[in-house]
Amino acid sequence: MDTFKYKGRNKRGEIMQGTIESANPQAVAAWMISSGISPINIQVMVSAFEGKSPWLREFLGGGSIGPKDLILLTRQIGTMIKSGVPIMQAIAGIQKTTVNPALVELLKEIRDNLDKGVELSAALAQHPKVFDDYYVSMVRVGEGSGQLEEIFKRLFEQLEFERHMKMKIKGAMRYPSFVLIAISIAIAVLTIFVIPVFANMYSKFNATLPILTRVLLGSSRFALDYWWAVLAIIGFTIYAFRLYTDQPKGRYNWDKFKLKIPIMGRIQNKATLARFCRSFATATKSGVPLMQAFTLVSRVVDNAFFEERILLMRSGVERGESLLRVAQTASIFSPQELQMISVGEQTGDMESMLNEVADMYQEEVDYEVGRLSESIEPILLGFMGVLVLVLMLGIFLPMWQMGQVMMHPKH
Fold this sequence. Notes:
Elements: E1 2-9, E2 15-22, H1 25-34, E3 38-44, H2 54-59, H3 67-82, H4 87-97, H5 101-115, H6 120-125, H7 133-145, H8 148-203, H9 211-225, H10 227-246, H11 248-258, H12 264-285, H13 290-300, H14 304-318, H15 323-330, H16 335-347, H17 350-370, H18 372-407
Antiparallel strand pairs: 1-2, 1-3
Helix pairs in contact: 3-4, 3-8, 4-5, 7-8, 8-9, 8-12, 8-17, 8-18, 9-10, 9-18, 12-13, 12-17, 13-14, 14-15, 15-16, 16-17
């Protein structure tokens, strides 16, 4: 079925226009007449992105489905199922009110698959870039248990939690990034505009300059004469870093290193643990088999180091070890969290305990991000102080020495 854009006048002569999904223009006209609208124009809606290459569609904003779109879609489906709306009708209703062309196309493909008798989880699995294994497995469990309404509610809460954690991490990175960018721009301005002025002045004197001054002047001269080489080195470094982190070993080493960075590593570690605990609790509570839950959650945490540790925990459970034992072996939990896991295992209420651990980590992440500026400002001020000291000693010390010689000439 196609989507048509219609325009007409009602009995009062007022313009009535909108969109409707129908088999053909004749059916749209019949609906308009039955609704008391005199048709003026009926035409098939064509997406502005139709016929364009995928990369151009994404650049123009018509080829991407972001986290907010997925969260809203999950909430809408869950609400409609809760209201007793059949899944086909729910997807159709959401499709009519969606403004994102990429999401409209996605929902259309899901509806086509459902029309062919494919299960919802299988239809979602055909779009792995939007619905990951965790999402699909949760929906499959909901279909098998008849609890799709509850599953979509938990998925919505999980996605909201994931988005909150990612926003906190981005917020934590924003302040130091801006400061480092400002420092880099200041260094570039000094190198290109300030230091050359002093270099010209010092070249008129036949004095022996301090080594620090010679290093600064040489660096400035190299940056000006071989700027293309500097840009090439920067570009190659970025390319090599991305190439390295795209490899499994490189990604593992980088993800492990990120957790050791002062201040930022602590926030990253707590946010990742919160995501693991929340995802694992949601999966097991929804009926996902324990071994499968470990595998799915290992991919959700988005950290190769934690992924390996979680898979080690799964191997330990497969050997018959207790969850507390494998958690201790993984060495990613503090004694306090291990104590809570022990209580949860003994009481048989592991999901609640893991959710409490996740809530605790979330609060700690919020607190850490809130006081990030207080924690990182001394480090940044110290770095800027060293930079200013180097510039003062390298640029102004020779001037001071020359001034001393001129005021106290040797006879």
